[in-house]
Design brief:
The chain is of the alpha/beta class. The chain has 10 helices and 8 strands. The chain has helices at residues 12-21, 47-89, 106-117, 157-178, 198-202, 204-211, 217-224, 258-272, 298-307, 318-334, and strands spanning 123-125, 128-130, 140-141, 145-151, 182-184, 191-196, 232-238, 244-253. Strand 4 (145-151), helix 4 (157-178) and strand 5 (182-184) form a beta-alpha-beta unit. Helix 3 crosses helix 10. The chain starts with 11 loop residues before the first helix and ends with a helix.
């Protein structure tokens, strides 16, 4: 998109003055004096007129500010529509749950679980997050997961209804896959989903102060500075050295079109339950940055089922978990 800016013609006033100076001079004849008349008093505006004029000025200023603030959001909305269309035209964002061209076996399911559940997508280097897939202990939730949606002012009622419907339906699916309580709640949530426009996300500290206070300053800064190709993200937190998650916050862009929006809901909520990493070898899976699949697959449901199997314990290393994971994977695939 080509951006442009209106430029005020600074020389216009000077040109008008020069044009006036080129007119022929005319000798002015002073008029005869007229009898003095009492000046009529100027009509003063009423208080109601003053209030109405002030309200009109404020309304115009607010409209102008809204147009200026929403311009980047409209640009992003078109950008994401183009992204979705391009991915679909290249055979990406598939929605088949059990694709016939991507069979699952015990080896691949075990490998994918270890890579996705026992590695993090990022490590912290000072105040920065570095994408290097470090090893991590097994983590999951102990308390019931209570999903709570919060919306910026940019999200109209229609968008809010769409999110609530999709998150409620997906929470049921997550509970069925894990056997762990997962539900949508209107208050007192421990897994917060914030739907914000670009302008609102840049000012995310004000939203987090009321919804998810006391997050690390570095994480708040990261959330406020997302690259535009980062459509959504989730941060999950444990308490102290425990390996149980107690809180999570996910960011969804309000400008996303329908399929990218659904894809973000599926991936970030599933990752926030403990499948923290992506893997280039995972297939068929949403935990793969190639965007081949948009929605949770049967492969991904099996990963969630393994994660919450009581034979695995939070804090396990990859070496400790691998033989147990293989045994669970064998049982699951033999039964399907």
């Amino acid at each position: 998109m080509t951006l442009w800016a209106a430029v005020r013609p600074a020389g216009l006033c000077l040109l008008l003055l020069a044009a006036c100076a080129t007119q022929p001079s005319i000798t002015a004849v002073p008029p005869l004096p007229r009898p003095s008349q009492p000046e009529e008093p100027e009509e003063q505006p009423s208080q109601a007129d003053i209030r109405m004029a002030r309200a009109e000025r404020n309304r115009a200023a607010n409209d102008a500010a809204h147009r200026a603030a929403s311009a980047p959001d409209e640009e992003l909305r078109r950008y994401y529509q183009g992204m979705e269309a391009s991915l679909l035209s290249h055979g990406r964002l598939r929605r088949d749950r059990v694709p016939q061209d991507a069979p699952i076996d015990v080896d691949s399911l075990t490998r994918d679980f270890i890579q996705i559940a026992l590695h993090d997508e990022y490590s912290r280097s000072g105040e920065r997050l570095v994408a290097d897939s470090p090893s991590a202990p097994l983590r999951r939730w102990k308390d019931p997961v209570r999903l709570q949606l919060s919306f910026g002012d940019s999200a109209d009622q229609a968008l809010q209804r769409i999110y609530r419907g999709q998150v409620a339906a997906f929470s049921t699916r997550l509970q069925q896959a894990t056997g762990h309580p997962v539900s949508l709640t209107a208050s007192k949530g421990n897994f917060h989903i914030l739907v914000l426009s670009e302008a609102e996300r840049r000012d995310i500290s004000s939203y987090l102060a009321t919804t998810v206070p006391d997050l690390p300053a570095a994480d708040v800064a990261t959330l406020s500075q997302l690259d535009r190709d980062n459509l959504c993200t989730v941060f999950a937190y444990s308490r102290g050295d425990q390996q149980y998650y107690v809180r999570a916050v996910a960011i969804m862009r309000a400008e996303l079109p329908s399929l990218l929006r659904s894809s973000c809901i599926h991936e970030e909520l599933a990752q926030g339950l403990g499948l923290a990493n992506d893997s280039p070898s995972a297939r068929p899976s949403i935990f793969n940055d190639d965007e081949e699949f948009a929605l949770l697959t049967r492969h991904d449901e099996l990963l969630l089922q393994i994660l919450y199997d009581p034979r695995l314990r939070p804090g396990m290393t990859a070496a400790e978990a691998t033989p147990i994971v293989r045994s669970i994977a064998t049982e699951l695939l033999d039964g399907n």
